[in-house]
Amino acid sequence: MADNPVFRSGLTLAAIAAICTALVAFTYQLTDERIAANDKAWLEQSLQPALSGLFFDSGVSESIVTIPAPHALPGSDDAIIYRVYSGELPVAALFVVSARDGYAGAIKILVGVDIDAKVTGVHVLAHRETPGLGDRIESNKTDWVRQFDGRSLGDPVAGNWKIKRDGGEFDQLTGASVTPRAVVKAIRETLEYFDANSAAIFAAAADAADEVVE
Amino acid sequence: MTTPTIIDRFKTGLWYENPGLVQLLGLCPLLAVTSTFINGLGLGIATLAVLVMSNALVSATRRWIRREIRIPIYVLIIASLVTCTELVFKAWFPALDRSLGIFIPLIVTNCAIVARAEIFASRNSIGSSIVDGIVMGTGFALLLIAIGVFREFVAMGWMLAILPPGAFFSLALAIAAKNAIDKRRREARSSALPRRSRLINR
Hints:
- The structure holds two protein chains of two kinds.
- By secondary structure, chain A is of the alpha+beta class.
- Chain A has one domain (51-203).
- Chain A contains two helices and five strands, in the order H-E-E-E-E-E-H.
- Chain A has helices at 5-47, 178-203; strands spanning 64-67, 79-86, 89-99, 107-114, 119-126.
- In chain A, strands 1-2-3-4-5 form a five-stranded antiparallel sheet, covered by helices on one side.
- In chain A, a hairpin with a 2-residue loop joins strand 2 (79-86) and strand 3 (89-99).
- The longest helix of chain A is centred in the N-terminal third of the chain and has 43 residues, at 5-47.
- The radius of gyration of chain A is 23 Å and the shape is elongated.
- The termini of chain A are far apart.
- Mean pLDDT of chain A is 81; it is low at 209-214.
- Chain B is mainly alpha-helical.
- Chain B has one domain (6-201).
- In chain B, helix 4 crosses helix 5 (94-100).
- Mean pLDDT of chain B is 83; it is low at 198-202.
- Chain A binds chain B through residues 5, 8-9, 12-13, 16-17, 20-21, 23-24, 27-28, 30-31, 34-35, 38, 42, and chain B through 61, 64-66, 68-69, 72-73, 76-77, 79-81, 83-84, 87-88, 90-92, 94, 98.
């Protein structure tokens, strides 16, 4: 049997597969901790824009709630909420939601809402809007998203949570109204969700700590 | 046949048989990530590392590998090495990993690597295969860097250079430039011959 070429080929393959697997497993062991730390640092860095002016002492990425797909928040994916505390007191909730009606696919945005239901900050995480037009919603291109800071459902009143072209109160971007309209709508829907569910959001049990959140 | 010196090997990898310019291998990552210098450098180094390690491993195991199973074994070795490289990038160069995205795992599909395993490493000693990995990998990396620098520079005045069509234009220009240089060299060499033999050549 040992002389059977098929048997020997199989054995060679199995041996090399085992060596390769060991190599990958070893590298994984070596890099695992650093990768987890990098992911966490990256996440906390990307949440910063929605945290300005807040007093909190909890690790931002530590108290996470995932709302599974059919939900009242904007977006058709699972929504992620990062809860921020000062001691035991809830301070704010950061929502990662997506505006579905942008010009080109979903616009993923981070909306921070403090305990008084005011917007703490908005940051565009990912989008595929037209370069030079719709992409001015990015905070490193223009200050457009800053106009939402401190706003809430009563300010402006519900009927005016629109861009100016639609008779609302918020600036649009010259040459692009689809993108701002979608973002304004997503923020308003997030505030409405927070208004209706804030107690439940802060009361919910956090996701398992070892779950990796992208 | 004389054994080629290290310098000859480098000339081969960097110029005469440059994987990107002459063999036209690995064009998918070459065209996709070369929008900036840093992306070209990152992917160039990652590809170089995978190529050197895969050449070494393929060469080290060449005595036990039967012809019929060599391709699955190359795939296994290359895929494991790419996974390791990806983990190392994620751990030590997270920003670069984010900007290269899917193209680090996609090194698996870079035909330049499997081609060197098949053409060279499976027939030569470990030392020689490592040298081959270094020269071919450097040739590929330098091309990635050159195109990255060129596109980033041109994009300051001409937006198209940074968009996908710019990649095709840049590669075409690089290949044309190489061919033009080779042609001039050939002509220079033939005109350096004595006059009589030039007449005969005509």
